[in-house]
Amino acid sequence: MESPLVLAIETSGKTGGIALFKETLLAEISLLSKESYSTIIFKSFPFLEKNLKFSLEDVDYYAIDVGPGSFTGLRIGLSILKGFNLVFPKPVIPVSSLEVLATNFVNYPGNIVSLVDAYSKEIFLASYKWENFYLKSIISPLCIPLKDLPLYVNTPSLFLSETLEKWKDFLKENLKSLFLEPPFSPHLSASLVAKLAYIKLKYGVAELKDAETLLPLYLKPSEAERKSGLKITW
């Protein structure tokens, strides 16, 4: 059976982009400006099609980081996905940004704690452990006050975040030997979204969704929702 071609989208973190993956990474375009995500991603397709000799029709699966993360970025990412899906409908493999962070260290033997900044002295947190390429969930994604984080850690854990420096002193002071610092700074990227989706497909644990009904994983109301008292839905 031929390996599937995965088109991945990442717009939840500091950088955004798209990637093509088929057993290995074929191409990735990374972007720094959220304002230009949709424009540049759509404009990049002729370049990818010309240089890789592929079309959107050739894609077998879409993969996307559904959050938690930037509210604006997540909405843009889903809009891009739905645009692609209007042209060529494909099954979607949603992954969380916290899983993507853990994919920086595939098959790390110990416990992993992934963190994303939720601002207002809060964090998005999840805990995982790799078991033969299966990313086992220990703590499902949730939003908690930063001060409560030590309550969720009872074993030495590798802490992964794009903004780890922001909390490093707090983690060292409150967790002592339970805080393990990564050897390099982890990041969110379309290539890691694609890699994780491919692993899930290969080991039969991919959860397939429809692009039109897929929702972002916000975990907390946006600033606009808190001020207005209304809930924004798709």
Automatic annotation (TrEMBL):
Residues spanning the membrane: none
GO biological process, one term: tRNA threonylcarbamoyladenosine modification
Pfam family, one: TsaD
InterPro entries, sorted: ATPase_NBD (IPR043129), Gcp-like_dom (IPR000905), T6A_TsaB (IPR022496)
GO molecular function, one term: transferase activity
Segments forming domain Gcp-like: 37-143
SUPFAM superfamilies reported for this sequence: Actin-like ATPase domain
Entry keyword set: Transferase
Keyword Transferase: yes
Chaperone among keywords: no
Alphabetical list of NCBIfam families matching this protein: T6A_YeaZ
Protein name per Swiss-Prot or TrEMBL: tRNA (Adenosine(37)-N6)-threonylcarbamoyltransferase complex dimerization subunit type 1 TsaB
The species this protein was found in: Thermodesulfobacterium geofontis
